[in-house]
Write a structure and sequence with these properties.
Four copies of one chain form a homotetramer. Chain A is of the alpha/beta class. In chain A, 33% of the residues lie in helices and 17% in strands. In chain A, the strands form three sheets. The first copy, chain A, has an eight-stranded parallel β-barrel, surrounded by five helices. The first copy, chain A, has a four-stranded antiparallel beta sheet with strand order 2-3-1-4. A two-stranded antiparallel sheet of chain A has the order 5-6. In chain A, helix 4 links the parallel strand 8 and strand 9. The radius of gyration of chain A is 23 Å and the shape is elongated. Chains in contact: A-B, A-C, A-D, B-C, B-D, C-D. Chains A and C meet through helix 7, helix 9 and helix 10 of A and helix 7, helix 9 and helix 10 of C.
């Protein structure tokens, strides 16, 4: 961390700042120039609140050089995190997961049929929304408790572990048998929820908020991890930009960037990002080629009559084809790496 | 609402769509062209889920022409909403409120001193954070329950109504004596919270999310209003753009736009938007000149040692000067309108 | 195109608008409702200025349903455009080009060495900047005329066709022997330049502006094509978003979107988008997997001492490896498609 | 400027970097820590290319602490720049200009009538487009040379100085009698044009690009100023964000920010930013209250039939009212400051 001091700093104020920083366990290096004085802080600055320092009278600006997250930081955990998402189902470090299923759980037949279909094609985790965040109060809000019950039925029938979204902490007790808890993009900075999930004994998939930076996503992971739960999966699902042709802009650079900054697995959801089913296969392939640890894809056996987000769901037939292309592509990439 | 059909639509599918739309209470007007067929829907389309229609095989695209919100819509409530925020304290329709106070409540002396100071300068509502949403788990998270107790003390001493932020529904019971509940930018789409606040007998101030459109903000207001609570205040606090010199970009056009689309009062928070105390006065004046119904300003008697967001807080002296300038400006504008 | 009329439209004004639209060669379908009247325009609306109609007193809003571009529109040219970029070198319709070379031409040895290196690895077009757009007047501005001379030398030595950027029309006479003219992101809406290039007998590669929509990029292509030059290549190179970790956000969805809307070839430049050489290989592979018609990659034999944009250039060794991975990936994709 | 070195830097490489930096006239302060070494550079770093340093093998990151512009920088010119824009017409340092006129010059009667109207209401400079940048090749492109002739006629009749946009350097000879040359948002980074205008003996008004940062705008001003022309006016006209209700988002914080960073005058164009005439008065008042040195407003005597951008033009009647409100507001602000 670098502190640039104002020109007219008094020596006693400077000394008292240096004293305070040293008490925080930091080495302080002073660079005095004709025009300006700099302090270089060396040590663990992740627990320093830059706002506090910025607010001091004698400080002109503060720049962080080290990242403000520690548990999620690859610097302190050079190896990829690898952990179970459902029994015997690993993610991270070369283990790839395909999460597939409908946007919303609608009824028993729907969820069980899709679960069997996607399993046959190669999906390894079943997704399905029970609690649905909808922009309009007049839109379908999900089957809620009943949706979770149906997901558990489909899990029983197919053996697939399940992932579904938690919208409010009051729903948490319903998630006992859910394998992975999803924190939606709109809740990425619901800090009370993140704190509570830090005490939870399940993997947590956190979707990047629509206008959240990579660092903010990692800070949200840090909230969970600092509570003791180290099994966090990061999910890129598109960011909001000026371009409106696609619903959001899928930021595929999230894959190499997040994997460089962090040891956590990174998956990509091409369905919500684009909002158009015909864009799902090319973007899923792109994410795979960029090195993602998994995909999260919406599949509906009747997208035209889905109760929500139909336009972005692909059919089981398209999913089957896509799953094979993903496999071929991963094989080709692995072979090319070995050459 | 306009539905553009695909070129090769079969007549029976078209008829069945038209039938369905008529059953939803809409008039359907058909424009058949050599190349394309359009359906024009006339009537109340606010409860129609465009995603559902978009998903139909025969539909190429759907465009909404009417707004998807009704309770918040000025078309159906041409007059400005005017309501009490604290006893005998009106907002809307020419009634202007100045909300002031510290980012966080820190201790009794701090909150009571600031409350007295800002009241003397002309503030009409006291703000202060008890539960604080912070990006880092290592930053100060607010005094929480104790913070609310101190705010109520300051209310008792000064008579100022108070506003503070609710971060999770589990905290709601602590807000009984709070006059206005604030929904923060990060919770603007916490739909479970918005639904619950629809059953609450207090004004709700909703901050625009960092990447939320005007329409999404109005949809969030609609969530509260559709539950029965019509006292919603909209708050512009800056949006996230590519520009990083200011923390966010304060979108002052929110004032005339939201007042055109809706009858609800609109206030502006220049402190969070810019993140720099020296930008607060010019932006507060700009918001006033644009026709805002109020301002929300952070004031701290010791910004350099504030426990959070110090850099964006102004001193009581600066606030006093600003409050007078705002008053002069409003007088000049009212006089100019009368000419 | 849909025109929504204001509520209180007088009949004679309506008739005169309809008359005018019919004179523009359009079919006009009227949908009269209790509350609002709509006009549906069917026919070629690409030459209609929506601003003009929007400005009429009786009009509430205008929405385009058809695209405002015609020459670049896949609807009117269903097959992929395929054309030569340099002798016997095709792009589009399955023909893939790898454009490689340094950001700036620095001297004869540099450009000739790199040209030979990238050719050996599989590059099919040589890139190199002679005129450089630099944010600061104090940064290196390119070798200019001398840079073009050196590029032509490298072309002679290797047989590779060359592409380089035109920054101002006054430089055009120097581009006689250049094979492909590049319009940079900052000049994407330099309409005087685009018009002139419409009369040019060379392929034009247009980079998407940092904040340009897909439609605006296609309108810029339309400027060139409406002048008679149909050989336009579209290039995605990253857009400006709130995320600052990468220099820009590479919008890989540009590939499937632009190929859906247009018949023109689409290439991707991962170097400028990310600004970090270590992000170039994963993003190049992602663009290939998404179906791009080519890549544009910065390669420098000494990135650490490049005169501009060194941090985003990869070495010839990294390029060689990348070119092989791209080839493997394309083979796997082609094989998977045949299954 | 701060340089953070990689962990394993060899001493001889470090010494050679330090030597090089000293040769550039900088003081170099070294902070060696257990984990990392920092170099603090003190002196004039505006001519240092950070890309070059970033590219060095031993460098992990570079952060600028001082601004990369010098002529435009308030630090080196603490007093507001004040200069003539037309004879006896000052801008800056409390001198306020109202620039008004049509988007496009259409014919003699139109431009002369509007010129007289806006002059009577208090406008001090006449604007009017002769060369028009239009997204579509099929839209009206301006009267071009003839437009300039008509503007000069209107100048002769009213005595108002004129401002109009230069779209390409080849048009420059037509601008001899134009008082202020406008560089449009799309040309803000047309560096060849900016360099040439540095040798021009006229004030240059530079519009902020739709996705340009404050610093980039100041760098474009620096291009002109480094050529010797110090009379640059900065113009905020809205930036591109995710919000599409307004055409662009008018960033009024540009006024206090640019005036803090630079001594150059700052004007605001509310017409292009919002794209809606009814938003022009509130946003013009907001810009004035924020401390702008002038306004640039589109006025058309027949907005409904304007050949371009009609929807954003206000009528002479509305302009007359607005000009009076602006005057009242400025009087009230000046009075409040004196108290």
């Amino acid at each position: 961390m670098i502190i640039l001091l104002k020109n007219n700093t008094k020596n006693d104020e400077l000394q008292s700042l240096i004293e305070w920083l040293k008490n925080m366990g930091l080495d302080v290096h002073i660079s005095e120039g004709a025009e300006q004085t700099l302090l270089g802080l060396i040590g663990d600055t992740s627990r320093i609140d830059t706002d506090l320092i910025q607010a001091l009278d004698i400080v002109e600006s503060v720049k962080r050089i080290q990242e403000p997250y520690k548990n999620a930081n690859r610097k302190f955990h050079p190896d990829d995190s690898i952990f179970e998402v459902g029994k015997d189902n690993l993610i991270g470090g070369g283990h790839f997961q395909i999460i597939a299923g409908p946007c919303s759980v609608e009824n028993e037949e729907q969820i069980c049929t899709i679960a069997k279909d996607v399993k046959k094609s190669g999906a390894t985790i079943l997704r399905g929304g029970a609690f649905k965040p909808r922009t309009s109060p007049y839109s379908f809000q999900g089957l809620r408790q009943e949706g979770i019950r149906l997901l558990l039925l489909a899990k029983k029938e197919t053996g697939l572990p399940i992932i579904t979204e938690l919208m409010d902490l009051s729903q948490l007790s319903l998630f006992d048998e859910v394998d992975v808890i999803q924190v939606g993009a709109r809740n990425m900075q619901n800090f009370e929820m993140l704190k509570e999930l830090g005490h939870c004994d399940k993997p947590i998939l956190i979707k990047r908020g629509m206008s959240s930076t990579f660092q903010e996503l990692l800070m949200s992971a840090e909230y969970v991890m600092s509570g003791g739960n180290e099994r966090v999966i990061l999910c890129e699902r598109g960011i909001r930009t000026f371009e409106t042709y696609t619903r959001n802009t899928l930021d595929i650079s999230a894959v190499p960037v997040l994997k460089e900054l962090s040891h956590l697995p990174v998956v990509v959801d091409p369905s919500h990002a684009t909002g158009m089913s015909r864009m799902v296969p090319p973007m899923a392939l792109a994410a795979t080629a960029a090195g993602a640890d998994g995909l999260m894809v919406e599949v509906h056996n009747d997208p035209a009559h889905a109760l929500c987000d139909g336009p972005q769901s692909i059919t089981p037939e398209t999913f089957d084809k896509l799953a094979h292309q993903v496999k071929s592509l991963r094989n080709a990439m692995n072979a090319a790496l070995e050459c």
